[in-house]
Write a structure and sequence with these properties.
With 98 residues, this protein is an alpha+beta fold. 26% of the residues lie in helices and 37% in strands. It is globular, with a radius of gyration of 13 Å. It starts with 8 loop residues before the first strand and ends with a strand.
């Protein structure tokens, strides 16, 4: 019986704190690439960052830890996580949205 690939789950993270203007979106992109996660990161008008991610449950858990840590210069106050609908166009690569 062949191994089945892990189920890829979509998640949406809202990251608040001092997370704009400190390279947070690029930090998230590099972390996503390390974990094989697809999706995007974008700044929101309220000063937070939205991260949409698609990956296995275990990789998403590791990714969230990175989001909570953030890059040097950032100060992450909170990371809210919620289920999201699957957006196939963001299933593989990770991009910075404007």
């Amino acid at each position: 019986m062949p191994d089945t690939p892990p189920t890829r789950e979509p998640r949406r993270y809202l990251v608040s704190g001092m997370v704009q203007g400190v390279g947070y979106r690029y930090f998230a992109m590099r972390a996503a690439q390390r974990f094989g996660i697809g999706g995007y990161a974008r700044n929101l008008p309220d000063g937070s960052v939205e991260v949409y991610a698609v990956g296995s449950a275990s990789k998403l858990a590791e990714f969230r830890k990175e989001l909570e840590r953030g890059p040097q210069g950032a100060s992450v106050a909170s990371v809210a996580e919620e289920e999201a609908s699957l957006q196939p166009e963001f299933g593989r690569g990770f991009s910075i949205e404007h």
